[in-house]
Amino acid sequence: MITRKALPRRTFLRGAGTSIALPFLDSMVPALASSAGKPPVRMAFVYVPNGMDMRNWNPSYEGPLRELPPILKPLEPYRQDITLLGNLTHNNGRALLDGPGDHGRCCASYLTGVHPRKTFADIKNGISCDQIVANRIGGATRFPSLEVGLEDARQAGDCDSGYSCAYTNNLAWRSETQPLPPVLDPRALFERLFGKGVPMSPEAKHRQAKFRRGILDYVISDTQKLQANLGPTDRRKLDEYLTSIREIERQLERAEQDNAQIDPGMEKPYGVPADFAEHFKLMTSMITVAFQADQTRVLTFLVTREGTSRAYREIGIADGHHPLTHHRNDVATMDKVARINSYHVQQFAEWVGKLKSIQEGDGSILDNSMIVYGAGLADGNRHSHEDLPTLIAGRGGNFIRGGYRRVYRRETPMSNLFLTMMDRMGVNVEDFGDSTGRLQGLDLA
């Protein structure tokens, strides 16, 4: 006789001002479970700015992935977990009408598939595909969607108007006139995920930092009670999950201590690491925890805002990223762009590896995710909007066949991909943006 009771999926560890959702545990699957016990599918978009050195992105072949091109080399260990897509285009990113310039258009249209433009109300765009999904399934999670990023044009001093900033700083659009700004500060994201979500003044944040105990210290009693009722596998999963949270806290503390010793001559965001790779790792570590705990199933991640002139001195490049992309076919300059592109992919590959290492159900978190990595421009020198650099990491819950390079008919709308992904999230709409149909050849059939 089977008498085992399932642990509720939305179980939390609670303490003073703290609420930590649990990861997917075996104990959450009822005995003789049906498909209701399967892990959730996530949809995420990781956007990189200023286009790509396409010489070192596109393979010279179609079909099963063999040796990856130079920019994608960091993803070699996960070759069977990625799908490369060719000839996807954002026609509405082009200069069809008056608008915010190529960098503004390519970013603002990336997830909306429509042509952003300036109106008497200042900005007008479309609703992004992530928000269409969030509006339909977001009630199942604490956060219908998460929007994160690593750089804001206003902080970099590269924003000439609020109108321009709205397009280059945002991927997610709740309505035609309402973008959803990304969270840039790791501490703010951490406290949003694990605190009560109540905004605090700078003075209150300072007091909290001065007397802060670790988040896990507040829930230790709940943790001990829960662990006593878990099997060995679930205890290991829970321990790994809580260890990840503790490590994030340590990373945040180190970043804040380092920042306290830096005087940039301007007001700096609270707790933002000076090092790009450290900032990327902190944000993706928290996204991973949010995925584990099913706090959200929809994510947009702006890996520095579009048009950025950020320098990457940590890899020996003191020139600004955006100026370098206008290389006029100078090989030495193009090679610097390729190094920046590869550096970004390196950070992404480390996150992919982390997601692949975390068991969930019969697979991993990566197996249950669809993570699009790409840009709204192809060649940054020409500002081309066709054959955009696009890959998908993960299988979307045993839906996508990884390890392939698929090249579609020229000028195939990128919106076709997003329409297909929305279907996989259980959100079926007739059309989206400038779509002409579903994208064929992704599924296992």
Question: Strand-residue fraction?
Answer: 5-15%
Main sheet characteristics: 8 strands, mixed
**Class from helix and strand fractions:** alpha/beta
What is the average per-residue confidence, as pLDDT, rounded to a whole number?
Answer: 85
Radius of gyration: 22 Å
Number of helices: 13
CATH topology of one domain: Alkaline Phosphatase, subunit A
The topology string of helices and strands comes to EEEEEHHEHHEEHHHHHHEHHEEEEEH
Helix content: 25-40%
Strand order in the sheet with the most strands: 4-14-5-13-12-3-9-6
Distance between the termini: 38 Å
- Number of beta-strand segments: 14
CATH architecture annotation of one domain: 3-Layer(aba) Sandwich
Highest CATH level, the class of one domain: Alpha Beta
Shape: globular
Low-confidence stretches: 31-35, 153-157, 261-269
Walk me through the structure:
This protein has about 450 residues and is α/β, with parallel strands linked by helices. The chain has a domain at about 40-195 and about 295-425: Alkaline Phosphatase, subunit A. The protein is about 35% helix and about 15% strand. The chain contains 13 helices and 14 strands. It has helices at about 100-110, 130-135, 155, 160-170, 185-195, 200-210, 215-220, 220-225, 230-260, 275-290, 320-325, 330-355, 415-425; strands at about 10-15, 20, 40-45, 65, 80-90, 145-150, 175, 180, 300, 360, 365, 370-375, 390-395, 405-415. The strands form four sheets. Strands 4-14-5-13-12-3-9-6 form an eight-stranded mixed sheet, sandwiched between helices. It has a two-stranded antiparallel ribbon with strand order 1-2. Strand 7 (about 175) and strand 8 form a beta hairpin. Mean pLDDT is about 85; it is low at about 30-35, about 155 and about 260-270.
